Amino acid sequence: MTELPIRTLHLLAGAGPGYLPARASSVADGVDQVFLFLFWVSAFFLALIILLTIVFVLRYRRRPARLHPEPSPAHSTRLELVWTIIPLALVMALFVMSTRTWIQMTSADPGADPVRVQVTGRKWSWWFDHPGGKGANELHVVAGRPVELVLSATDVIHSLYVPEFRLKQDAVPGRFTRLAFTPTVPGSYPILCAEYCGTDHSRMLSTVVVHADQASFDAWAREGLPADATLADLGKQVFAEKGCAACHSVDGARGVGPSVRGLWKRHEKLADGTTALVDEEYLRESLVKPGAKVVAGYPNIMPPMPLEERELKAVAAYLETLAVEGGAPAKGEET
Ligand code: CUA
Known about the structure:
Layout (H helix, E strand, L loop, with lengths): L2 H10 L15 H32 L17 H30 L8 E8 L2 E5 L5 E2 L2 E4 L4 E7 L4 E5 L4 E5 L5 E5 L5 E7 L12 E6 L2 H9 L8 H11 L25 E3 L5 E3 L2 H9 L20 H13 L14
Parallel strand pairs: 1-5, 4-10
Antiparallel strand pairs: 1-2, 2-3, 5-8, 6-7, 6-9, 9-10, 11-12
Helix pairs in contact: 2-3, 5-7
Bound molecules: dinuclear copper ion (CUA).
């Protein structure tokens, strides 16, 4: 709690923008303008009211010469005009400033050739489908090139928040919301979830990478696997890119869901008391209908995560490489 007064002192002393995150998007200036306007207007009137309170308390205090309050005027047109026109002007200025910024961040310029990215929020990770079919758990954009984000969610309401861009927008299941902006400074900035969404809300983090130029972005988008990559390598990539690792560890550690180390071809005890063999069919069903077979001791909260057949085979191959020594069944047991 000591941080706030210190920051306020910095602000009052007019210290540099160090107390606010860097401004790295086309809408950041507009947002800060509204914030600083509100701050200084409030600070001014707070000081004025405190000052007047002190003056009136001293000046009109009870004294031997004045035991009763003097009569006050019943009406003053001039005063009423002053306290109507000044607040009206301030509120109108605020309305114009914030509406301009709001329009800027919710409607993309159709002629600007923006990078369109489909953003999906889910418990508890972000997923970004970039142009050209490249999906990733990080957002990639280019400095100086307009971006249009279309947001949605698969389970509950999340909120995409990038402090350096001064942008925050709800991602709502069953509908689309939009954000439009142009990143201005190359670098990496944190993405947070700003709408409480359950157990791991505070860990629903990601990163936005602002590439310095289009060539760097293209190189990232083309970045693939080496020619000699195995199916398991691809599976490892799918596992990471689809955000599976957020809940399922690969080292045996207990997470939101069961670890995938040693999981393959194991007979798992389910919540309903039965057991099930973890094989390709089990994996396929679990991705489409996660609630069908829930491992005992874990919550039934996984969102559906349908994969292409190619991706599913690859993840199966990857999980097979994670089967622990001795945990793998005899060859004859496989189907
Ligand atoms: Cu997602 Cu909070």
